[in-house]
Each structure stands twice: as structure tokens, then as C-alpha cells.
């Protein structure tokens, strides 16, 4: 590709969010380029464990011009089924993707758009563009705590994105650190496989899988929670910063009850705060964390009760979760060798990495400052971020709407700055 090649729009990332913007730009006749470091939608096949399932019902799965139309709309697709579904979508259009190419630098050219540096198997070259859409995912860098390097090197350590199945880990007990969606489900996966599991839990809340005859997420969708703009969402910024509720779609869907796991032999701890050699230290937060998660669980059920009553919906009677196990104490220490722990799975999340973008579009934590994906930097937009517009942003349920807004904004802007493009709107 010529170093002087120019495209009106460059989209960085060919996941479902970036490709959704491409779908709309293609419909509008806008020339654009999608740059992908590997292959389109690769993360679904490469970064999910073997027994992964969606935690949202299949009917949530909707992308531009394409919705789930299989036999189980209230079920939960497995990893391989999601991959097949996405391949079916990609068969419906031909996005202009340049694969196995990484954007290593994005530089503003004053008021003349952007210069994009591309690195691939053929070397390094550049293109210029008027508009850039960053669709690289919300948080691409896995978090590993700094003290991990001080832990006994005989203990295998991996991040949750590297976990695929229990067999990849050495024989022995496993410590899972983190109780968000990935941590809780990986702990369950290991537990069901008969492994001795130790789980350090954080402040993640939980939600019932089914309540009063329906999936809880279907109730919440009916209640408008996934459509409420971020600035109007109950709890404000604090609610948006919380870890997602843990639940699973495995085997048709069920609650993830850490207390039940404990009663079956899983060892639970509070927040892991430090480690050296074979010794780990935990904050005495286990009891409070379990109680808080159950409180959120019951609070969501109560919200659904009010919705049912307000709308006169015929549904089974209400109920509340009652604890099946409580910790006798809050453990604060663990010796890996004494416990027979041979591996650790870090499931404490990811962090943003936009160091390759040379633009004043980020807050002190390195997160984009944006409104519905549009920044104050002319021509720079983001898509696929959690809470970009609503709770549904970053999920299949909200991607189409978010991508359409970004594409519409781009088409309108290009129509103003490039009169010849106005006719394609």
C-alpha cells in the first residue's frame, strides 16, 4: 500500500463493534479501511475458555442487518456457537479489512485529519484519513499485580484470557483471583472438573439467572435498564465503575452461588493484597463481600417485583435468596505449598492502553473522554466501550445502536467537509 494512500475513514479493530461501523459506512457508500492486528472477530475463538457461554440470552445478539434466529432465543450460545454466528454475519457483507496489521501510531495532522502508521508482515507504511474510529475494545491489557513476580516460580501463573480448560494446568489445587464474570465462571469450571479450588473474591455483585418465570436480564431489558443513557442511570458514575454481576449461561443457565461452592469444598477468601514466595495475604473482607453480593441479588429481585406489580404482570410468586453457608472467619493468610496449590489464574480484569494515540482525548486514568463515542478531538471516535452510551454498550444488545450513531455522525461530518459525499447520505 502506498505511503500516501488516503481514506476518508480508518477503523482500528475488526471485532463486532468496528465491523458494525463498517457495515453502516458501506451502506452509505463511504470509502474506508478496517485495520485488524489478527483476523476479524478473532477474540471469540482465541480468548474464551472451552466451556464458555454467553451470560446474556441469545435474543440479545443483534448486529447490523443480522439477529439471532436460532431455536433457543432464551438460551445461551457456547463459544463455538458464537463464533459460528459471527461467521454467518460476516458472510452477509464484505468489509474492507486489512488483517495481520497493527496500528502502532495515530497522529493528528492539525486540521488536516490523521496519519496512521501501519505495521504488518510487509513492513511499516502509513495512510492518512479524515476520520478515525477506535474499536480496539475497552480494556485490552490484562492486569497482573506487581507482586506476582515475587511468588514462588514453581507456581504456574496465567491470566484469565489464557485459560481454556482444567487440563492445561498442572495437577494440584488452583487459586483463582477475582470474582467477576470470568473469575466466578472459571472457578466453577475447575470446581465441576473436580479440581480443588481456592477463590479470592473482590467486590463483584451477583444476579439471579431466572426469577419469577423469566431470565433476569429479560426482565431488566423490559424495564429499560439497558436503554437508559449513562447520565440518567441510577447510581451515576459509581454504578458504571462496578464490576459486572456474576452469573452463568452454562447448561442452560443458572446462578453462580459461591456459598454453595464453599459448602461443596471450595475455599473462599477476601481480596488478595500481597504475596511473596509461598505466602499470600488477604484482606478480611470475605463475609462483607458475600453479604454485599447477596444484597444486590435480592435488590434486583425486588426491583423486578415492583415492575411486575406496577404493570399487573401475571408471574410466579416472589422469593429471596437465603444464605446456604457462611464463613466461620475471614481468612487472611494462605500458604500455597501447604495447600497444594500449583497454579494461579488471575481474573482481576484489564486496563486501557491508548499510548499509540497522539491526541488529547483521555482522562487521568487513560480512558477516552467521549459522548456516545464522539470525542472533542475533531474526527476521533470510539466504539465498543462499556457504558459508552448505556449499560448495553459494549454488549451485543447495544452495539448496533452505538455503531449506527458513530456512522451517522461520520457521514454527516464528511457531507459537510466533502460536498461530493453529501449525496450518499
UniProtKB/TrEMBL annotation:
Gene3D superfamilies: FAD/NAD(P)-binding domain. Keywords: Oxidoreductase. It holds the Pfam family Pyr_redox_3. This is MSMEG_0569 family flavin-dependent oxidoreductase. It comes from Gordonia sesuvii.
